[in-house]
């Protein structure tokens, strides 16, 4: 009798531990992706004084979609169910993987927009409507295409998309028939994230190198100046930091996929759950989000005479090409 009571207590303790971790996971995902990020997006889109490029909106929105997808079972009333309806599991797996595609491609769009408008890497900062349209269309289109193909395949061949309830969300079953879909998203996402990291670090290095060639240049003065490259350094640093955060996430997810019964699997889940919150802390705390700014006058490139704005209405001052503007105002990065 004593051993039976001890066994029951151990099961109850394990259940409580699992329940606590589940609650903690959903709190992190909801607070970061469904409360803080939507507030930041609303501030960015509704502000009359601070304008952000739509690629930044798309990148943040992709993390909101990820958060909602992770909570799909919870919102359908099966968040704590050990055996949710199979159809709901299929939909959740499709949604989560589709949002990974959207996150990857929106990250590429964000970095490419920086690359095309950064003065130190591109001589022309003029906007291209066609380019901007493509950068905005590709991320959601990639997600929709993946979701349609996945759901269509699940109706034709259930074994190729077989899913099951995982620890916190639904996941692919560990069988040979699911290897293609189970590995496709991690591989594509890893390639996109690594490309983003390469280009963002190169842009950051190039910008610092260009600024260091200016006589009397100091990093502290640049970061505090609204027209001497400080805004560029800030946004490039934020982008590089967040992408660098994603790389260990991919590694942790790969380890978790190879050893699903590893005792550290909950740490991996919590690490992934922190990503929407990390996106808010890095991008949602830009100065334009934290408070309204006075409207910045248009900037005229004295080399070409063209009005420029770049990625976030910021420009870099160099010895060969300066930017003239009105009275100094607070940085909008």
Structural summary, described in words:
- This is G-protein coupled receptors family 1 profile domain-containing protein.
- It comes from Exidia glandulosa HHB12029.
- Keywords: Membrane, Transmembrane, Transmembrane helix.
- This protein is mainly alpha-helical and 333 residues long.
- The chain is 65% helix and 4% strand.
- The chain has a three-stranded antiparallel β-sheet with strand order 4-3-5, with no helix packed on it. Strands 1-2 form a two-stranded antiparallel ribbon.
- The longest helix has 45 residues.
- The N and C termini lie far apart (66 Å).
- The N terminus and C terminus are likely disordered.
Radius of gyration: 23 Å
Report the total helices: 11
Name given to the CATH homologous superfamily: Rhodopsin 7-helix transmembrane proteins
The CA-CA distance between the termini, in Å, is 66 Å
Decide which structural class fits the backbone. mainly alpha
Helix and strand sequence = HHHHHEEHHHHHHEEE
CATH T-level topology:
Rhopdopsin 7-helix transmembrane proteins
Main sheet specs = 3 strands, antiparallel
- How much helix is in the residues? 55-70%
């Amino acid at each position: 009798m004593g051993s039976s009571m001890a066994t029951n207590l151990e099961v109850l303790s394990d259940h409580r531990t699992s329940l606590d971790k589940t609650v903690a996971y959903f709190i992190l995902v909801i607070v970061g992706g469904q409360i803080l990020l939507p507030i930041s997006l609303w501030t960015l889109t509704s502000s009359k004084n601070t304008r952000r490029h739509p690629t930044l909106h798309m990148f943040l929105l992709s993390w909101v979609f990820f958060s909602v997808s992770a909570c799909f079972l919870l919102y359908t009333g099966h968040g704590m169910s050990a055996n949710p309806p199979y159809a709901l599991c299929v939909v959740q797996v499709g949604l989560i993987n589709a949002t990974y595609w959207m996150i990857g491609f929106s990250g590429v769009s964000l970095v490419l927009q920086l690359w095309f408008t950064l003065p130190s890497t591109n001589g022309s900062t003029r906007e291209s409507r066609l380019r901007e349209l493509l950068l905005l269309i590709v991320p959601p289109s990639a997600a929709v295409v993946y979701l349609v193909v996945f759901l269509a395949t699940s109706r034709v061949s259930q074994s190729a998309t077989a899913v099951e309830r995982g620890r916190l969300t639904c996941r692919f079953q560990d069988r040979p028939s699911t290897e293609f879909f189970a590995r496709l998203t991690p591989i594509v996402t890893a390639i996109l994230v690594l490309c983003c990291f390469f280009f963002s670090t190169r842009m950051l290095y190039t910008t610092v190198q260009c600024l260091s060639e200016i006589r009397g240049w100091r990093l502290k003065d640049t970061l505090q100046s609204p027209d001497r490259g400080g805004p560029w350094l800030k946004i490039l640093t934020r982008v590089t930091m967040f992408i660098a955060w994603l790389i260990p996430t991919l590694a942790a997810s790969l380890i978790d996929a190879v050893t699903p019964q590893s005792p550290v699997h909950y740490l991996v889940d919590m690490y992934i759950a922190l990503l929407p919150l990390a996106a808010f802390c890095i991008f949602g705390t830009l100065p334009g989000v934290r408070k309204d700014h006075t409207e910045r006058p248009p900037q005229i490139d004295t080399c070409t005479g063209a009005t420029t704005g770049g990625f976030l209405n910021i420009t870099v001052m160099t010895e060969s090409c300066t930017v003239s503007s009105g009275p100094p105002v607070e940085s909008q990065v």
